[in-house]
Write a sequence for this structure.
């Protein structure tokens, strides 16, 4: 035998202790460990990021956290929490808002009306609640100060409410205070809200809605109001940050839509987005000079609601006044023209239609628009936030006091 062959021959036969399937198992195991570590790392990083965003109060510098002050209500959709306070913050105001044991701002009022006192209950949305100004500057407090000591005023305003919810609130809470006068504040988006089953700023938040039967009678629907759990962006600040970043980039947003992770409807920048008015294009369509079938339906429901409220007020031996709340853009021609709205939009159409309804239903109404425009309407509103500032509230309170004093002379003696 050749010596080289002998030297190259292995002294023993090498065999593997692993079966053919075991290398794959080892690889899979290592992959699982790495994947677990990656997921854990991402979880820890996300948790730390969420903690940092919460500590820094991310997203709260330029918004009013209304959801923190609201709770679910099966009849009304939402209402104020009781015994709660929160700071409402924007780049134009910083207000500490406190709600008492009944869920209203200010001192708790007795249901029993004091003797020889003319009691007024005021219903409305965020203009009445007045979370953008200190409680003592709200027009209801100004009204009470101007009519004191003959009258006291109960403010039952809740942000986002429309006439339908205000009627239900009057039935559920308002009559407990035995008012002699009910003041209903009416804002342009009440028309849209009266025909909708969800909150204007979120389709997740639902509300009661009335419809008219064949005989023109009001019928309540969507009650009990379906409960909606908080959206992810409300529960997790990190999700809200990522969501905002993705929606701000059309390429990323299109990719998430393609992956089925987002709604297929991209933002439509061609729709009117007026300044000085809360709400979206759907609500602002009420300014159409030519009435659409949908507008006709919403106005019909609105008129029926006002008629029903007047009937209830009269049954309780009280009086009803409608206070029109003009939006800033109605009163400032430069802002109206600068919004580039469709040509068939008319800034006067809402108040004119409301006045016609009040005349038909014999309901007294007050429109303070002339008082605003006589000295410059922009003085009475915030610049970016659509609500009245303290100066605006004082003007409305004084105007309303003069109107009530002249129309309720006998009762206020």
């Amino acid at each position: 035998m050749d010596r080289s062959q002998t030297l190259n021959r292995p002294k023993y036969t090498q065999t593997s202790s692993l079966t053919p399937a075991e290398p794959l198992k080892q690889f899979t195991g290592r992959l699982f460990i790495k994947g677990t570590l990656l997921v854990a790392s991402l979880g820890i990083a996300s948790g730390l990021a969420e903690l940092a965003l919460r500590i820094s109060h991310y997203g709260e510098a330029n918004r009013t956290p209304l959801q923190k002050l609201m709770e679910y209500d099966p009849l009304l959709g939402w209402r104020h929490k009781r015994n709660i306070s929160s700071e409402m913050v924007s780049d134009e105001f910083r207000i500490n808002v406190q709600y008492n044991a009944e869920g209203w701002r200010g001192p708790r009022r007795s249901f029993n009306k004091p003797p020889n006192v003319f009691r007024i209950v005021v219903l409305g949305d965020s203009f009445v609640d007045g979370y953008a100004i200190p409680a003592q500057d709200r027009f209801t407090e100004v009204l009470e100060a101007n009519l004191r000591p003959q009258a006291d005023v109960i403010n039952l305003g809740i942000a986002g409410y429309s006439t339908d919810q205000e009627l239900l609130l009057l039935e559920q809470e308002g009559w407990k205070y035995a008012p002699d006068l009910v003041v209903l504040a009416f804002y342009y988006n009440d028309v849209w809200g009266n025909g909708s089953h969800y909150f204007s700023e979120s389709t997740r938040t639902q509300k009661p809605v009335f419809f008219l039967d064949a005989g023109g009678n009001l019928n309540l629907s969507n009650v009990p109001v379906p409960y909606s759990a908080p959206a992810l962006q409300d529960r997790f600040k990190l999700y809200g940050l990522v969501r905002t970043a993705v929606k701000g980039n059309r390429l990323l947003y299109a990719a998430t839509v393609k992956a089925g992770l987002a709604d297929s409807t991209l933002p439509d920048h061609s729709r009117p987005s007026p300044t000085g008015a809360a709400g979206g294009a759907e609500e602002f369509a009420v300014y159409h000079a030519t009435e659409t079938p949908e507008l006709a339906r919403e106005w019909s429901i609105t008129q029926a609601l006002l008629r029903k409220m007047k009937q209830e007020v009269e049954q309780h031996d009280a009086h009803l006044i409608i206070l029109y709340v003009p939006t800033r853009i109605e009163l400032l021609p430069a802002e109206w023209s600068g919004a580039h709205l469709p040509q068939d939009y008319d800034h006067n159409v809402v108040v004119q239609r409301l006045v016609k309804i009040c005349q038909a239903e014999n309901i007294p109404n007050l429109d303070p628009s002339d008082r605003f425009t006589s000295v410059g309407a922009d003085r009475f509103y915030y610049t970016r936030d659509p609500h009245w500032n303290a100066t605006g509230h004082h003007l409305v309170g004084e105007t309303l006091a003069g109107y009530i004093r002249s129309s309720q002379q006998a009762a206020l003696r």
Residues 3-7, 10-15, 265-273 have pLDDT under 50 and may be disordered. The radius of gyration is 30 Å. DSSP finds 16 helices and 13 strands in the chain.
